[in-house]
Amino acid sequence: MRKVGMIGCGVMGSAIARTLQDEGFVYDIDPERARALADGTRFQVAETLETVVKKCNLLILAVKPQTLSSIYPVLRQAGSKEKRWISIAAGVSTSTLAENLGTTEIVRYMPNIAARYKQSVTAVAAHREAGRELLEEAKTIALGFGRVHVLDERLFDGFTAISGSAVAFIIKFLDSLAQGGADEGLAYPLGLTIAAETAESAVTLIEESGLQPRDLINRVSSAGGTTVEGIKALNDGNLQATVMDAVRKTAQRSRELEEAAANHTERK
User: Fold this and answer.
1) What domains does the chain contain, in order, with CATH numbers?
2) 195: alpha, beta or left, given left = phi > 0 and alpha = psi -120 to 50?
3) Beta bridge partners of 149
4) How far, CA to CA in Å, does 46 sit from each of 6, 110, 136, 195?
5) CB atoms within 10 A of CB 177
């Protein structure tokens, strides 16, 4: 029988745990946060990190990457090599995790914060020596909080840039639309609602029309009309180049974090 252990009860860990119907244990350095997650679920609070590892057979690592180095020794002593693992620690590769946990039964997630509303877009990658069953199990869990893309782990940096971090980019754009609407007399809350609904319209066009973005833009734009004028302003502000630069820099930072995590392991 599967028993799930959640290590870390922050925003993402809690969001994932609340989609599960499993019995298991949760642990967090803040006991109040662990109790808040256990309330209303089938999870029990583990008083120690060792307890959650020993009592569960599928562990979900939902801690910040910089925390991992301090807990690896405790995880190993508690029997990490006999367990299956799912990690959402950004920038920590499955090979680094395997070296520290003593097992290759590891799957890595890159979700986004919409997981709490079951609308995450999540990348999933398994260690090259992990069993197929673990990957399928991890996919099923991830489908419980949104959409899933199984990727080669080498693509995670790019995925982080256009999904995990890009949620903030898209929200920034919607905020800018609402701010512009406020300048034109629309109350900001109403403008933000309209901008978000319009974003949903745009997504529907991309998903349902079968047309490329450039073709859709041309369909909306009439010669001498309002949309053309707005697109010209976006082009004058180098919107596309700025967004592409944001993606490039975000992916580069993801690579740097992964290298730092690997180098820390090598120095031990």
Assistant:
1) 4-156 (3.40.50.720), 166-237 (1.10.3730.10)
2) alpha
3) 123
4) 10, 25, 27, 44
5) 18
